[in-house]
Crp/Fnr family transcriptional regulator
Amino acid sequence: MRGQITGGEGPRLRAGQSAQDWAATIRRLDPSLIRGISDDGLTAMLSETRIQHLRRPKHILRQGEPADWGYLILAGRIEVSYLDINGNRVLAHLASPGEVLGEVEQFSGRACAASCTTLADTTVMLFDAALILRHVPADLLLRNFAGIFHDRLTRDNRQHSVAMFYGAEDRIRMHLLSMTSLEEPCIRLSQSELAGFAGCSRQTVNKTLSQLRHEGTVEMGRGEICVLNRARLQGTRPGGEQIVLEDGFSAGPIVVPPTEHMPKA
């Protein structure tokens, strides 16, 4: 297999981080792919893999090309995008710490279904199928893959529901909430990218962000949006809905159906 990690190659850890530190980080993140791995298995896996800190955005997987590695996100975010046959680029997902990318391609041997680009200051653990098979029992791995696919089906269903029953401004607010947290209130995201996630025009995003900034709910810088007041962002607005994020909701593209197919009140 291309890019196979061999047992003699130790982890390339960031300054100030030990294998024990990364093991603790992985336990806290509880990534779906290796959920249930034993302490000995995790220690052995870390002794054979590599950990990379990418200070600048970098293409790590390219649509239509083989996946040399799979990536477990330890810190930062990774943008997943899809290019259709007409050259239209769609933001498919914004992956967060604990998520894995490239695992399906690693185990299937197929070319990448989408492209993945790290955002600034992202840390990843590299793996291949052989590494995972050495340290995760087959029955556990099968259950974990089933869980990953179930989570993705659930995410797709939720996003279809959002597209059908939430207005554009509420979709924008929902994505700002899902892409940030109390610990990480800022996200590096352009207004065009936010429009792609929310399934609306850039003009609608500009108008909504301007209003939220005027209220003191968000603050904007160069390519960055910071949520200053999550409670206000979640609150009910005139003519809108209160934003309540379900467990597991994550940023993905909203495909808005034509008006004639929308359910009638």
